[in-house]
Design goal:
Length: 334
Amino acid sequence: MSSTYRPGYKWGGYRPPPFFSVVVPVYNKEPHIARAINSILNQTFQDFELIIVCDPSTDNSNTEVAKFTDPRIRVFHRDEPGPGGYAARNLGIKEAKAEWVAFLDADDEWNSGHLLSAYNVIQEHPDSNLISSARSSSLNGLIKLDPFARKQNSRAILKLTLSDYLKEANSGRRAVGTNSVIIRKAFFSNKDIFPEGRVKRTGDLYTWVVCIAKAGFLTWSPHIASVSYRDSVNMVSKNSAPSISLNHEMVLELKNKANHNEFALIKKYANRLIRTAYFEQKKINEKAEIGLLKAFYWRGDLAFCTFWVLLSLLPVWVLNFLKTKKGSLKEVLS
């Protein structure tokens, strides 16, 4: 696969690298890309470069990108689309000049103080290699804080081990979102960190577990990094389902890198992602990649696995009906 680069400007003489490289993948996001780019350019912390990686859009996304002439912008063009933006992000990481790499989806936006807050976290916690923070989502104008951030009662910066992260994630409270993550490039640059070519959706959930396992801990900041818009156009989540097999790959990859307790939590986390992938595959395709009976990791998670295998025997229309009901059943089916 090839890519071409259009420089925003020529580097005249020596210039020190920026503190941050910001990577934005773009594919058919014409109505939203200007909002995303402006939210980066309007950061209160200005020592960054912006790497925009354009897959071959069928709308006017590239035209919208070309309207921006800020000299810190570098634009790369790939010759075929990569679902989920994983290949585009991997390319952006490779091309980054900065030590620290941040990400923003083309249909979302950052709050103006995100990079300054992240910079302060890095100064206060120089042993960090992986940083995340609170984030919000917007649907029909209603903005909600992510569940992990809502649970915190203080404004303290946290250092979460892999076990800490998985315990929260298994209860639906993930402390990581791609729009809020910042990585130290040198620590993760030995291979592609996003699963390009392997999955269309939720590959970031795999990525962050693997990254936390490698880093040893995640530094989490309470500042609100971003707003993710759940009603944007051309969202991958609207026309594709997550992969079941990628979760098996995650378990195999971490089998010899995690201790006994961590590995048990990893399999429980995989079960919850497998459950979601299975029902979304059935909803879209009416036939899942593999049945839950074979897909699940049963040891240590018997009640969860049994409940969802039994539920999977119901027709899709019954499950959709149950999801419309109020109360705990609606939550457990979501």
